[in-house]
């Protein structure tokens, strides 16, 4: 086998280092999936489409889809831009990831496939008062603890 030239090795290394796709055995990393779900839930709560979020941070809607599925990793700079567009702090998003990630597939990761999810998120997105939104969130958390 012929040795690779320096430029060929550099090209391969750059490709490996800059590739954002995360494919481990069986698919995306669970933390990347949890972050994607947290982003998706926040986006829905704000009433933004994938296109609108993508435009706000300078990427395509397809890239937002990949972030939300966890198939592409979100860099820190991109996470900051996403949080700015979603009007939240990075710490809030990280806290949501910690809640969603239990090490195994969490029931919440299937939330958006449930028939009640879309109407609930649409209704929440229509609430303009931050105080009322917080009250709805606290009510939901209280009901979740009791069930």
Write a concise synopsis of the structure shown.
Pfam families: HTH_3. By secondary structure, this protein is an all-alpha fold. Helix content is 65%, strand content 0%.
Could you characterize the architecture of this molecule?
This protein has 147 residues and is mainly α. It folds into two domains: 20-104, 434 Repressor (Amino-terminal Domain) (Orthogonal Bundle), CATH 1.10.260.40; 112-147. It has eight helices and no strands. It has helices spanning 6-18, 30-46, 50-57, 61-69, 76-85, 90-100, 117-126, 130-146. The protein starts with 5 loop residues before the first helix and ends with a helix. Mean pLDDT is 78; it is low at 1-24. Residues 39-93 form the HTH cro/C1-type domain. Keywords: DNA-binding. This is Transcriptional regulator. It comes from Phenylobacterium soli. GO terms for molecular function: DNA binding.
């Amino acid at each position: 086998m012929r040795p690779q030239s320096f430029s060929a090795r550099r090209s391969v290394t750059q490709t490996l280092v800059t590739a954002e796709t995360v494919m481990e055995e069986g698919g995306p990393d669970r933390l990347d999936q949890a972050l994607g779900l947290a982003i998706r839930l926040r986006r829905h709560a704000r009433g933004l489409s994938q296109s609108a979020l993508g435009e706000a941070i300078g990427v395509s809607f397809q890239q937002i889809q990949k972030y939300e599925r966890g198939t592409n990793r979100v860099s820190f700079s991109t996470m900051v831009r996403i949080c700015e567009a979603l009007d939240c702090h990075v710490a809030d998003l990280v806290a949501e990831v910690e809640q969603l990630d239990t090490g195994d597939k969490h029931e919440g990761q299937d939330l958006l496939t449930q028939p009640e999810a879309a109407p609930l998120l649409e209704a929440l997105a229509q609430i303009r008062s931050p105080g009322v939104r917080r009250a709805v969130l606290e009510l939901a958390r209280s009901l979740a603890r009791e069930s």
